[in-house]
Write a structure and sequence with these properties.
This protein is mainly α. It folds into 3 domains: about 400 residues, MFS general substrate transporter like domains (Growth Hormone, Chain: A); about 55 residues; about 55 residues. The chain contains 20 helices and 3 strands. It has a 3-stranded antiparallel sheet. A hairpin with a 2-residue loop joins strand 1 and strand 2. It starts with a strand and ends with a strand.
Length: about 525
């Protein structure tokens, strides 16, 4: 049976998905995981990559930034490309191109070649994230969608977490090149799954002639420039930099173009008006904050362990990966939880656990090591499981069916954009809080203070011994100030997560056993 909706052919899904549907879901999940993994897989290998391609530390940051910028631009545009090319043709195209660009990165001998490959990876990888949600919500019946969403939620959490660990292991045991070559066999398997699992569909060439080109250009300029501002703002001293000022101006110009397209285009590139839908607007805000926490904490813990505990990338990655373990235990029970647990209670519980885990980490000491993160990491894993997976459910079910692709794109973009915002806040606040705590510690330890006199007494009148003692005390205070700044960051994320908990009251329980439309 078929019905028409917004010019698209829709078919009601049977109550039990067939093998082809599950193969399609597997393809979507694998693609989303590849894209999420490649966001952070180069983090551990950056020093080696920079050395081989002749890039400085500042230039090397663009290896990660270029991927993120391109991905964030592509995520909300993917729905338009699906309508234009058809889901199968679009995913086959981006998968093949993702492998090509991965090979370009793996064989790179210069910074320009590497950045070109990473931009291509970002564009093609960014298309795989929201389309995975689309496949789950359109190829599976309501009773089986929770299983697909659970696996999609696993990619959203495990991708950024596993990236540094996988990249670090490959770099230390083989070469950084294999962090990119890994995508070739996985991509080949993905192509086979797509051919078997997704039905062919016709191109809609009328979308080319009726496209919201002003909105497409505006969204690309806005999201691209905004991400650059967030990623590089602190390093370039924010608005003291003419480059950051230019990017900010271009972002505002792009936003104006996007708004113009929303008002005057026959078919806007993405329907931003769903953001004003009370339920989806709440999901969008929660996705921003949880995205900031996911990427922010994934960055903070390795940085703390490297600077304070002397851990290498592989050791730090192992600690970060602990938060993924609770999800593996919860996933088998997820369909049962969706059937019997209220959506609002599940998300509120997840956010409470997430916030509590951050609060636990806000009392670290200079002697802390990986073991001090075990409790908080397991608690964080429980929080991420309930908050992120149930938010996935809420995102696609909080809008009418014809807006499902727009909702998937905006939700995925919100999570990644939230990650950029979180990392920008960390870069800014961590430096400022470290300076603030250093200054306060210096003010409490003067030449006449009891602590200073106690430390200097064994040195007697030996000038070299006195200088060594003062230098040692200085390093101790710097170290302590750094720990206090990290504690402030964990506390900041704890408060941010608590503040969004009331938004769950706006959400509605997911209706059960409704027919689902498939393109």
């Amino acid at each position: 049976m078929s019905v028409g909706s917004s010019g698209l052919e829709l078919h009601l899904v049977e109550e039990k998905a067939d093998a082809a549907a599950w193969i399609a879901v597997a393809a979507g999940i694998i693609g989303a995981f590849m894209a999420a993994l490649d966001i952070s897989i180069t983090n551990s290998a950056l020093p080696q990559i920079q050395g081989e391609i002749g890039a400085s530390g500042t230039e090397g940051t663009w290896i990660a930034t270029s991927y993120l910028v391109a991905e964030i631009v592509m995520i909300p545009l993917s729905g338009w490309f699906v309508n234009l090319l058809g889901l199968r043709r679009f995913l086959l195209t981006v998968t093949v191109l993702f492998m090509v660009f991965s090979m370009i990165c793996g064989f790179s001998t210069s910074l320009g070649m590497m950045i070109f490959g990473r931009i291509g990876q970002g564009f093609t990888g960014g298309a795989m994230i929201p389309t995975a949600m689309t496949i789950v919500s359109t190829r599976l019946p309501p009773a089986q969608q929770p299983i697909g969403m659970a696996f999609f939620g696993l990619t959203a959490v495990m991708g950024p977490i596993a990236g540094p660990l996988v990249g670090g292991w490959l770099t230390e045991n083989a070469s950084w090149h294999y962090a990119f070559f890994l995508n070739l066999p996985v991509g080949c398997g993905l192509v086979i799954f797509l051919l078997l699992g997704l039905p062919a569909s016709k191109m809609r060439r009328d979308f080319l002639f009726e496209a919201d080109w002003i909105g497409i250009a505006g969204m690309s300029i806005f999201l691209g420039c905004l991400t650059i501002v967030l990623e590089d703002g602190q390093r370039d001293h924010w608005f003291e930099s003419s480059f950051i000022l230019l990017m900010t101006a271009l972002a505002l110009f792009g936003l104006a173009m996007l708004v113009y397209g929303q008002i005057y285009a026959k078919r806007p590139v993405i329907r931003l008006r769903i953001l004003f839908h009370r339920t989806f607007g709440s999901v969008f805000i929660m996705a921003l904050v949880t995205g900031a926490a996911l990427y922010g904490i994934t960055y903070l813990i390795p940085q703390f362990l490297a600077q304070i505990s002397g851990y290498n990338a592989l050791q730090s990655g192992s600690v970060v990966l602990l938060s993924g373990i609770p999800m593996l235990f919860v996933m088998p029970f997820f369909p049962l939880l969706v059937r019997h647990l209220d959506l609002r209670i599940a998300i509120a519980f997840g956010l409470c656990c997430y916030a509590a885990s951050c609060y636990i980490d806000s009392s670290l000491t200079a002697g802390a090591a990986g073991g001090d993160f075990y409790t908080s990491q397991f608690l964080r894993g429980v929080g991420q499981t309930f908050a992120l997976i149930f938010l996935n459910q809420a995102a696609t079910r909080s809008v009418p069916r014809e807006f499902a692709q727009d909702a998937a794109g905006l939700y995925s973009a919100a999570r990644n954009l939230g990650g950029s915002i979180g990392l920008a806040l960390i870069a800014t606040l961590l430096d400022r809080q470290t300076s603030l705590h250093t200054q306060r510690l210096f003010e409490t330890v003067t030449s006449n203070s009891i602590e200073m006199q106690d430390r200097l007494r064994p040195a007697g009148t030996d000038i070299l011994a006195i200088q060594s003692t003062i230098g040692s005390l200085y390093q101790t205070m710097i170290r302590q100030a750094t720990v206090m700044a990290f504690n402030d960051m964990f506390y900041f994320f704890s408060v941010a997560l608590v503040l969004i908990i009331p938004l769950v009251l706006i959400l509605k329980p997911i209706p059960k056993n409704l027919p689902v439309a498939v393109h």
